Amino acid sequence: MEIPDMASLKLQSRPEIFDFEGVSMTHFFTDNWEKVKNFQARPDDILIATYPKAGTTWVSYILDLLYFGNDDPERQTSQPINMRVPFLESCFQEISTVTGTEMADNLPTSPRLIKTHLPVQLVPKSFWEQNSRVVYVGRNAKDNAVSYFHFDRMNMVQPDPGDWNSFIEKFMKGKNVFGPWYDHVSGWWEKKQTYSNLLYLFYEDLVEDTGREVERLSSFLGLSTSVEEREKITKGVQFDAMKQNNMTNHVNIPFMDFKISPFMRKGKVGDWKDHFTVAQNEQFDEVYKQKMEKTTVRFRTEI
Ligand code: PPS
């Protein structure tokens, strides 16, 4: 795949946000919509679903190691995680001629691990028809917002975030790519009540006890992994290990400017405390109460 360099990409402007079926989107995630909508899932597919910046890469890597960690050593040393786990709705035509759906269609593995940031109502219906397994990861709104802010600063294919004050206003209004955080986490939570093949994980639980969550994943997927295997995986997926690992730290992505902010930034629960002013925190809590009134999903903003 031919990849243009950062300098030439920087010359292009950031994408506009627009309303797509009631959700804020950029064209990078809607240009291939017919193919996304009609994507043919398989019964053994595993869909990794998240709001952006909730722990997608972390869980993708854990799943990849659980399934393929002992197979082909070359996979672990030469294939970046974003090539192993295609981003279903992505369509970065300026950068690559291969769309997310094509990448997924051409995956040689079984099962296929597929990433999506779509809110539950936009997920291609074949995943439900095929009863594919889904792993959802949620992260508390405050840390999620902070992580998303720094990501939008460094990622040239995302809309310009502006400064932190304007970003947090936008976040509370749900005007980020992939829509409101509130609807995303609660929509997927509702789905879990009726769709039993869905495991809902929390980023905070992963930070608190990664080994326990690896075991939870392994058991949800019906895998018979040994304690030693799980310990090895747990060690390999720690923040520092993944930050050093060029297959997981996204250094291969040309439109991310690591001088502005690294992809593997802090990996913490509670970093929001270094960003929110007291007034912002109070306003955020008020908005949160209203938006999350009807859902029973609960997040921890510290551990
Ligand atoms: S994306 O672009 O939506 O796919 O990003 P995503 O992978 O969902 O989220 C990136 C954030 O997850 C953190 N991360 C981790 N934290 C702890 N441990 C491990 N192993 C780990 N791997 C990724 C990453 O640092 C981003 O969070 P922030 O808060 O910005 O550091």
- At the first level of CATH, the class is Alpha Beta
Share of helix, binned = 40-55%
**Class from helix and strand fractions:** alpha/beta
Query: Please, how many domains?
Result: 1
Radius of gyration: 18 Å
Strand tally, please?
Answer: 6
Biggest sheet: strand arrangement = 4-3-5-6
Average pLDDT, rounded to a whole number, is 95
CATH superfamily: P-loop containing nucleotide triphosphate hydrolases
**Which CATH-level-2 architecture?**
3-Layer(aba) Sandwich
Distance between the termini: 42 Å
Biggest sheet, in brief? 4 strands, parallel
Number of helices: 15
Percent range for β-strand residues: 5-15%
| Helix-strand pattern | HEEHEHHHHEHEHHHEHHHHH
- If you consult CATH, what is the topology? Rossmann fold
Name the shape in a single word: globular
Low-confidence stretches: none
Strand-helix topology:
Elements: H1 6-10, E1 18-20, E2 23-25, H2 33-37, E3 46-50, H3 56-68, H4 73-78, H5 81-84, H6 100-105, E4 113-116, H7 126-129, E5 133-138, H8 141-154, H9 164-173, H10 181-194, E6 198-202, H11 203-208, H12 210-220, H13 227-236, H14 239-244, H15 278-291
Parallel strand pairs: 3-4, 3-5, 5-6
Antiparallel strand pairs: 1-2
The structure holds 3'-phosphate-adenosine-5'-phosphate sulfate (PPS).
